[in-house]
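Before relying on records like the one below, remember that each one covers exactly one chain. Contacts with other chains, cofactors or solvent are not represented anywhere in the record.
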Amino acid sequence: MTKEEMTTMIKTMLGFPTVPLYTTDEQIHQCINTAILTCKDHMQVYRYKSYGVSRSKQGEILPVYGYSVDLSDLDFTVVTEVFRGDNISPFLFDDFYLLNYASRGIPSSLALAIGAFSQAEALINRSWKVIGKKLFLDKFYSSITIEFVPRIIGLDDIDDDSWISWIQRYATALTKEVEASIMGKFIVDSNPFKPDTDRLLSEAASEKASLLEEIKDRGYLKIVRT
């Protein structure tokens, strides 16, 4: 979903065009950005990029790490995993998959388990370290693929429908606050319709509290090196 599509949905949910809205599309965009920032740390958004590997400069780091990759072009929060080569899948290493097939004792299933284990060797589990914008390796690989968490997450980076729904609902609550704030600056003397800013603010506060409680324990802790 694009930001423009979500903006249209939020306006529709608030009664537009039947009910006039004072909040602009740009202000709703900012509400969407705020909603993304609010739930960002609970989401599982990973990206992948491949690099060539070069030898580290003398004295650049501890001798055990003889090879390095420059990540200065990458805007990331943390590197979560490193794989050999540029043809990888984040789901190569699945303990349950290996145990399930290997324990059956059937030749074809065992062959599948061996194949999966061979693929799992593409993982580099204890031989890399990130310092600043440099990734260091203790072994040489002609190329690697890193899994990382991007520092900035956009709406188009999120492919989980439940999170899209959460962001839309939270952004709607924020838009109600903005709308109430704008309407509260006007005094209506002759108009028979009076803006109900108190109701909008009350709804927004209640919805935000409920949504924050909804994601409080959502997501999981992924252990990474620092």
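The CA atoms of residues 103 and 209 lie 48 Å apart.
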